[in-house]
Amino acid sequence: MSNHYLSIENVQKTFGRGPEALNVLKDINLTVDRGEYIAIIGHSGCGKSTVLNVVAGLLDASAGGVILDGKEVNQPGPDRSLVFQNHSLLPWLTVYENVALAVNKVCAKTMNKAERKEWILKNLDMVGMSHALDQLPTQISGGMKQRVGIARALAMEPKVLLLDEPFGALDALTRAHLQDEVMRIQADLNNTVMMITHDVDEAVLLSDRIVMMTNGPSATIGEILDIKLPRPRDRIALAEDPEYNHYRREVLRFLHEKQRKVKPLQKAPPAEPARQAQQA
Ligand SMILES: Nc1ncnc2c1ncn2[C@@H]1O[C@H](COP(=O)(O)OP(=O)(O)OP(=O)(O)O)[C@@H](O)[C@H]1O
Ligand SMILES: [Mg+2]
């Protein structure tokens, strides 16, 4: 057995059976140390979410397995919390209540009521949401909802934080802001993180290593890039930094030269015209 905190060993995943079977993942091997920030990047449909879902215990691997802190993962658990691109807050609960639901479940044995309340408030404060405790999800912006989702995930103190394109649905400014906050929180808490992204800058800025996946079917890990930029990292200063730009080019080269998306044989149907934005 390896000494690594998280270890993905020979994972394969096939969906369906017989002639319909689709082999999505093949020979996925990855070890992650405690406190490491890993980004997974690869073309759409290659199997990134499938990898994360196997680590989360939401999907069973067809072969191989995942070991976290010495234990095999075979179902979802509070030691792995997942944040998706689109927030998954319960619409009838307030910001506070959405986080409380998770904390009351996971921390019921370790904290009393007052301690849980303090913990919920602390985590919401960490993501800058203390001002909106009593708002419902429909009353706050997309970026705010993602913050609450991150607070909820952090409040469970998972061994691994699994982020599936957490900033994917946000505008560029909000995204940059949240990336900076995640870096700050990461510097404080030293979480172990696996984050899927399509954004090359985001991957280089946030990670210690970038795992680059080959195209499917039977996708696997093509290359792993070590990002040795010192922390804390500043996006403005890095924009001109030759080392930063070298890493960026390496990822782009992998995605657009080595793993160029093969053109589909059939012509895609014509795109629907974009819907007009509604006038207020
Ligand atoms: N539950 C499922 N049943 C059958 N096929 C699935 C299932 N989940 C995923 N797939 C297939 O597995 C492949 C990989 O899907 P996955 O969602 O992991 O890709 P991805 O890399 O996360 O893509 P994207 O970047 O678009 O989110 C796709 O071909 C998808 O259709
Ligand atoms: Mg995905």
How many helices? The count is 8
- Which strand order does the major sheet show? 6-7-8-3-9-10
Topology order in helix (H) and strand (E) letters: EEEHEEEHHHEHEHEEHH
Bound molecules: adenosine-5'-triphosphate, magnesium ion
Largest sheet: 6 strands, mixed
What integer value in Å does the Rg equal? 20 Å
Kindly, what is the distance between the CA atoms of the first and last residues, rounded to a whole number of angstroms? Answer: 60 Å
Task: For this entry, give a set of tags.
280 residues, alpha/beta, six-stranded mixed sheet, four-stranded antiparallel sheet, 8 helices, disordered C terminus, binds adenosine-5'-triphosphate, binds magnesium ion
Question: What can you tell me about this protein's structure?
Answer:
With 280 residues, the chain is of the alpha/beta class. It has a domain of 76 residues. Helix content is 34%, strand content 21%. It has 8 helices and 10 strands. The protein has a 6-stranded mixed β-sheet with strand order 6-7-8-3-9-10, with helices on both faces. A 4-stranded antiparallel β-sheet has the order 2-1-4-5, covered by helices on one side. The chain starts with 5 loop residues before the first strand and ends in a 22-residue tail after the last helix. The structure holds adenosine-5'-triphosphate and magnesium ion. The site of magnesium ion has 3 residues, from helix 1.
